[in-house]
Amino acid sequence: MKRVEDYQFIGLLFAALLLFLCNVEANLNYSSIGQLNIGGLFPLHFYDEPKRTCGSLREIGSLRRMEAMVYAINKINQNTSVLNNISLGYEIYDTCSYPAETLKQSLNFIPPYRKASSCECDNPGKNNSLSNEIIGVVGPQRSSSSVQSTILLSLYNIPQVSYLSTSDELSNDERYPYFLRTVPPDRFQVSTVL
Ligand SMILES: *[C@@H]1O[C@H](CO)[C@@H](O)[C@H](O)[C@H]1NC(C)=O
Ligand SMILES: *[C@@H]1O[C@H](CO)[C@@H](O)[C@H](O)[C@H]1NC(C)=O
Ligand SMILES: *[C@@H]1O[C@H](CO)[C@@H](O)[C@H](O)[C@H]1NC(C)=O
Ligand SMILES: *[C@@H]1O[C@H](CO)[C@@H](O)[C@H](O)[C@H]1NC(C)=O
Known about the structure:
One of its GO terms (cellular component) is membrane. This is Metabotropic glutamate receptor 8. This protein is of the alpha/beta class. It has helices spanning 2-22, 60-78, 80-83, 99-106, 143-154, 186-193, and strands at residues 29-32, 36-42, 45-48, 53-57, 88-94, 134-138, 160-162, 179-181. The strands form two sheets. It has a six-stranded mixed β-sheet with strand order 1-5-2-6-7-8, with helices on both faces. Strands 3-4 form a two-stranded antiparallel sheet. The structure holds 2-acetamido-2-deoxy-beta-D-glucopyranose (4 copies). One 2-acetamido-2-deoxy-beta-D-glucopyranose binds next to loops. One 2-acetamido-2-deoxy-beta-D-glucopyranose (NAG) is lined by residues 84-85.
């Protein structure tokens, strides 16, 4: 029974991936609306500096990290003992691995810039009446991008949790009070290596 569920899940994931890859123009977003919504910033493309636009697709790993976030949110929504009747949503943007693009996409999470959205009932059975607020952001990947987005998001008290930004600069809690990470800063890795 468990195996069947796993295969179904992999099939769904693959379909989502294909849909996603077909829609590769820049400024893309990937969303499902819930009662509480989490933002995501992932580097899916490289940046083309001369053309000042998003360039070619990056390796599959970035897409995997993004799908892992969506997978975790879906798992939480399916399990009534985690958040009971509250549905979680997500809204994900491509940073194109570039700090300025990250800053631009972070504007999508800022209350005065958010468009009012209607209930699309993406999580059937859950209550989807919206506050249309982003309660926190996952990502971005690079430290230079995290610095840009956390400065902006902290003005609106939106916490940010990066999964790969290891710069010591970001350890400054006074400068970056809303920045958190799931990886240790470089300082610890250096002392381990030494
Ligand atoms: C998200 O993408 C859809 C089409 O894929 C577009 O209609 C919508 O305006 C986009 N939203 C934002 C905030 O960019
Ligand atoms: C639901 O979440 C609880 C923990 O909150 C866990 O013990 C349980 O195994 C989960 N159920 C399913 C079906 O994943
Ligand atoms: C959750 O929703 C179900 C069905 O809508 C309802 O019967 C139940 O009482 C709700 N639980 C809570 C704690 O609100
Ligand atoms: C959904 O939630 C809102 C507030 O979060 C509440 O006012 C409304 O009654 C709920 N609707 C249902 C059908 O539970």
